[in-house]
Design goal:
With 294 residues, the protein is α/β, with parallel strands linked by helices. The chain folds into two domains: 4-165, NAD(P)-binding Rossmann-like Domain (Rossmann fold, 3-Layer(aba) Sandwich); 171-292, Orthogonal Bundle (N-(1-d-carboxylethyl)-l-norvaline Dehydrogenase, domain 2), CATH 1.10.1040.10. Helix content is 53%, strand content 14%. The protein contains 13 helices and nine strands. The strands form two sheets. It has a six-stranded parallel sheet. A three-stranded mixed sheet has the order 7-8-9. Strand 5, helix 5 and strand 6 (117-120) form a beta-alpha-beta unit. Helix 8 (168-196) packs across helix 10, helix 8 (168-196) crosses helix 11 (236-253) and helix 8 crosses helix 12 (258-272). The longest helix has 29 residues, at 168-196. The radius of gyration is 20 Å and the shape is elongated.
């Protein structure tokens, strides 16, 4: 019976996700590279802060991670002080980081050699979804490992599915990001066009959102885009990291991604405007500056 958990990485996503686990009654040990964040989490939720991923994973039934990039995942798993160095036999490592499918497959092999299980489980839903326990979790791994951890993941997920063997979760997250990139750019173009045409964009959205153009991005982002507010949601620099993973995988598997490649270039322009930490809907800021010639 799963009782003791470890959670590595207490960023904007990991912090509330680990908090939901504690609220569900699990014993949670946390690790964060910035130790003060771990201390803050323990003061809020209880549990214990570990000094290394290796320390956090010791004795845990399931070890969760939500860090930044492939290199970070490798460090907290296979590094000298990584979780794989101390995980007990039959424990399962669940990686919520958006990383490459190739790394997921490598870690599945490394975990098996260490006598552990591995599930790649990137998430979608953003910071608010993490806070509200309404994330979508896309998983790859063997079914027995997945079935053990799925009830625990449900502590912060509204949807959780196994898509295939190791790497399938990451590949599905790539599909997610490819779709979002195109949708946000289309919405930015549509709103900018509406303004250029002398229409009231809010009234336009009120009408077209009732038809085939409706999307989550339209429903949740058009008002903040029109008010030039880009200080919430998923950051541009992180989206570019994800799109780089998508484009590399596309080169590997032969998939053509012209829209994703173009939108990545547009995000590079947003970064040049000072928008590295703006949210992804800031494509509209680029459109408006271009339209106005500024």
């Amino acid at each position: 019976m799963i009782q003791r958990l470890a959670f590595i990485g207490l960023g904007v996503m990991g912090y509330p996700m680990a908090g939901h686990l504690a609220r569900k009654g699990f014993e949670v040990v946390v690790f964060n590279r910035t130790a003060s964040k771990s201390g803050q989490w323990v003061r809020e939720f209880g549990g214990r802060a570990a000094s290394t991923p290796r320390d956090a994973a010791m004795g845990a039934d399931v070890v969760f991670a939500c860090v930044g990039r492939d290199a970070d995942v490798s460090e907290v798993t296979r590094g000298t002080d990584g979780a794989f160095q101390s995980m007990q036999s039959s424990a399962i490592f669940v990686d919520h980081t958006t990383a490459s499918a190739m790394l997921a497959r490598e870690l599945a092999v490394a975990a098996k050699q260490a006598g552990c299980g591995f599930v790649d489980a990137p998430v979608s839903g953003g910071e608010q979804g993490a806070k509200d326990a309404r994330l979508t979790v896309m998983c790859g791994g063997n079914r027995s490992d997945y079935e053990k951890v799925e009830p625990v993941i449900r502590s912060y997920a509204k949807e959780c599915q196994l898509l295939g063997e190791a790497g399938a979760g990451q590949l599905t997250k790539m599909v997610n990001q490819i779709c979002i990139a195109g949708l946000v750019q289309a919405l930015a173009e549509g709103l900018s066009f509406a303004r250029a045409a002398g229409l009231d964009p809010e009234t336009v959205v009120d009408v077209i959102s009732k038809g085939a153009a409706q999307s989550w991005q339209m429903e949740n982002r058009y008002k903040t885009m029109l008010s030039d507010h880009f200080e919430h949601g998923f950051a541009v620099e992180l989206m570019r990291k994800d799109l780089a993973i998508c484009l590399e995988e596309g080169r590997r598997n032969g998939a053509s991604l012209p829209v994703a490649a173009l939108v990545d270039q547009f995000y590079a322009e947003v970064e040049n405007l000072g928008g590295r930490r703006w949210d992804t809907s800031s494509l509209f800021a680029r459109m408006e500056r271009s339209r106005k010639g500024t």
